[in-house]
Amino acid sequence: MMWRAILPALPARHRGVTLAGFLVVGALALTAVLASHILPGSPTEIAKDHALRGPTWAEPFGFDDLGRSILSRVGHAYRVSLGVALASVGLALLAGVPLGLVAGYAEGALDQLIMRPLDVLMSFPAILLAIALMSVFGTGVALVALSLAVVYTPIVARVVRAAVLAVKVELYVDGARALGAPVLRLVLRHILPTRRPRCWSRPRCSWRSRSSWRPRSPSSASACAPRRLRWASCSPTAAASWCRRPGW
After folding, report:
1. Is domain 76-248 in CATH 1.10.510.10, yes or no?
2. What is the pTM of this model?
């Protein structure tokens, strides 16, 4: 499993916090997948008798101004944010890691050919570039994930390229090269594994920012079908309703 490969590379004082973080993320993901079976109440059913009721043991988040369960709405809405985050991070890794490996190992003209277009993409603000891509190619969850992957692929590629440039001059890499190891074996067996924690750090940060980017961006709120439940349409509305007229 992934956490078994990451934990040994961390200092002993950080392993407990890292494991706790994995447990929290796993619990959130499990809640999103099984929201229809484990969460009480309906995320869409309107019950005016329950409007703005306070938290209870059965409903720890209370109800919104239309009597809908906020806990159920947040759990169902997390499916969209989780799907966008996983898809965009996966696509960014699939595109950025090979580009960074090739650019860092080859250097020269090939490095310039790969990295200069990626630098052009990085010159644009991330949210503005994602909005521009969605305005050109359309809306939808898949297109939101693809747009975010395009935005963050240059960042992943630059992190991997820097790691390769730092490792390729090490003595053990020169020794493997002198023994006749092919380029593919050098990169995949001797260079990439030593920098795996560093290459994983950027996608983990990107996952956090991308899962929270959609609720804040106006374009992301309109990027899905109108009837699709999302954080942008449930959490801010509930918070505004509670501020206007608290129910307890």
Report:
1. no
2. 0.71
